[in-house]
Design the sequence.
């Protein structure tokens, strides 16, 4: 199993980024997926989740209305569209297959004020 994140970087407050997580080694369309983040000195927190078909999503309260999780099962990829970014969104973002120990390597998102 491999999960590879991309799309992070440095952006100004109010800007946007789209993270991608390319999955391989398992039947992607059969599993829900999640995005987590971890800021320096803080616990890792669940940001967004999506069911296997993409029919249901859930979000951390602080990102509702700004972030959108989606997936393309034909491409074995899950996305996190992040709009109106704030400095408090600065963290390393990880994708994860729930109830497993499968994690991506993480990707840095830095939002400057």
Sequence:
């Amino acid at each position: 199993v491999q999960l590879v994140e991309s799309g992070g970087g440095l952006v100004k407050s109010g800007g946007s980024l789209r993270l991608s997580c390319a999955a391989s080694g398992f039947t992607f369309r059969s599993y829900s997926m999640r995005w987590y983040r971890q800021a320096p000195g803080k616990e890792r927190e669940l940001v967004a989740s999506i069911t296997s078909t993409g029919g249901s999503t859930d979000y951390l309260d602080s990102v509702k209305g700004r972030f959108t999780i989606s997936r393309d099962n034909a491409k074995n990829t899950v996305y996190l569209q992040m709009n109106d970014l704030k400095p408090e969104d600065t963290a390393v973002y990880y994708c994860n297959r729930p109830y497993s120990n499968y994690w991506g390597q993480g990707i840095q998102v830095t939002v400057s004020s």
